[in-house]
Amino acid sequence: MIQRTVLVKFSDTTTTEQLQEVVNRFKALKNHLTGIVDLQAGLNIAERNKEYQVILMVRFEDQGALDAYVADPEHQAVAAYIKEVGRLDSIGVDFEL
Questions:
Q1: What is the average pLDDT score of the chain?
Q2: How confident is the model at residue 70 (pLDDT cuts 50, 70, 90)?
Q3: d(CA 65, CA 76)
Q4: What does the DSSP 8-state code read for residue 30?
Q5: Residues 6+ away with beta carbon under 8 Å from 31
Q6: From CA 44, how far away is CA 52, in angstroms rounded?
Q7: Each residue of 22-67: pLDDT tens digit?
Q8: Is the CA virtual torsion 64, 61, 25, 4 positive or negative?
Q9: Sign of the four-CA dihedral 21, 39, 77, 32
Q10: Which of 37, 53, 48, 42 lies closest to 87 in space, CA to CA?
């Protein structure tokens, strides 16, 4: 299995509603894509490191499932929305479990 974790930083003009919509759209991918073992998303509630407001985590069966996810049009639409509402930066890591 492969775990992908992404932290996303947004501009000061991005609203709380837009951040929640990012979370909702990401969570909706779970039912759309095959090869996903688990998918979690939420708003950062930590007192420190507040500059990254959204956390996305997805666990894939294997590398093939991860590759399919990256290329999937539904995932690409979520990524486009994230940019549209003010994504400034993101940090992503993948590791094998």
A1: 95
A2: very high
A3: 15
A4: G
A5: none
A6: 7
A7: 999 999 999 888 899 999 999 999 877 778 999 999 999 999 999 9
A8: negative
A9: negative
A10: 53
Q: What is the sign, positive or negative, of the torsion defined by CA atoms of 14, 16, 17, 22? A: positive
CA dist 57 and 4 (Å) reads: 6
Beta-bridge mates of residue 55: 7, 42
Q: For the residues 8-20, what does the mean pLDDT come to?
A: 96
Residue 1 CA, chain-centre distance (Å), reads 18
Q: Which amino acid is at 20?
A: Q
Q: Residue holding tokens 């990254």?
A: 52
Q: How many Å apart are CA 1 and CA 11, to the nearest integer?
A: 33
